Amino acid sequence: MDIGSGKDLADYHLHGTDIPYHLIDIHDAGYEYNVYQFMNDFIRAFDDIVRRGRQPILCGGTGMYVESVVKGYQLADAPVDPDFRHRMEAFSDEELTARLAGYIKLHNHTDTETRDRLLRALEIQEYRLQHPDAYPHIPPMQHLVVGVLYPRQTVIERIGLRLRERLQGGMIEEVKALLDSGVPEERLLRYGLEYRHVTQYLRGQCSYDDMYRDLYTDIRRFSKRQMTWFRRMERQGIPIHWIDGTLPFADKVEAVLRLFRQPDAERE
RNA sequence: GGGGAAGUCGCAUAGUGGCAAUUGCAACAGACUGUAAAUCUGUCCUCUUCGGAGUUCAGUGGUUCGAGUCCACUCUUCCCCA
């Protein structure tokens, strides 16, 4: 999953210097990952980097993955509990939803839409009750959150450019190879964006032009949702220092370094 | 040149006399601590003290208590025959 996931490995080699990176290629294609696992992987890498006296930089990822670290989500290491699931079989979705509502405030439908998700959400809550101390150790850290901001129109143009590059760069072939190697179709469909749309195209469910148009639209909407998330982070008290993306590369680097050198109090 | 069909809020679509006007997409705003590259919600002619108010359905005129809907002409687009 090199192209569709945007590994951008070439970016880790700059002016003759290799920039070390972590958490790329840590699982096989098709593996089902989640925020809890990410936090653990992040903490391991963070501790390792800090122990060696270096500066960790968390780059990219969705708003929620960044936030999980910055806010220090308290996620319990709740294992799948076959016994519990067996006992829950007797209850209807409505009863289970009511039960879940007794534990947490139901935010939207994502926890209650499918029985699988409902059971998992309950499983986690039951586990928390029994193991109130089962949270991962989150190391103390200070963070400086920096975002690169482009005008909306520029973002849209860049998305189109990147999409065309990926398609010409072998993305169709990449998805085909994944399917051929046995990664389940449902898995790819659930990854969303590139993997979802290209899989649908390869399965003959839409024309190439339809695939391109719908994928382009979905990426635009995704980028919009990311901005919604970042605005929410700021509203919740996490300042994001926005850098003008249209500046020359060196100026952007300088802007970040300037922020980094400033004491917290002097930053806006 | 002759015949036929059609022009509705960004695009596409409903609507045959009581409508600010259907639905989808896009757009915009928002929710979201365990699949999140996912999932879901709201707004979407203008103004609003959220009670309403004012302008709309290519254009002009007409019929009618009332017109997106009927009539006439004009403009534009598409199809068929030459």
How is this structure best described in words?
This protein has a domain at 82-130. By secondary structure, the chain is mainly α. The mean pLDDT is 87. Strand 1 (13-14) and strand 2 (17-18) form a beta hairpin. Helices cover 54% and strands 5% of the residues. It binds one RNA strand of 82 nucleotides through residues 4-6, 32-37, 39, 62-65, 67-68, 71, 73-76, 78, 104, 107-111, 113, 116-117, 120-121, 124, 187, 190-196, 217-222, 224-225, 228-229, 231-232.
Spatial gap, N to C terminus: 39 Å
Would you report the number of β strands?
4
Main sheet: strand order: 1-2
Structure classification? mainly alpha
Q: Which spans have pLDDT < 50 for at least 5 consecutive residues?
A: none
The ordered string of helix (H) and strand (E) elements is: EEHHHHHEHHHHHEH
Radius of gyration from CA coordinates: 21 Å
Work out the helix count: 11
Overall 3D geometry? globular
Question: Biggest β-sheet, characterized?
Answer: 2 strands, antiparallel
Helix percentage:
40-55%
Query: How much strand content do the residues show?
Result: 5-15%
Q: Look at the structure and give the mean pLDDT.
A: 87
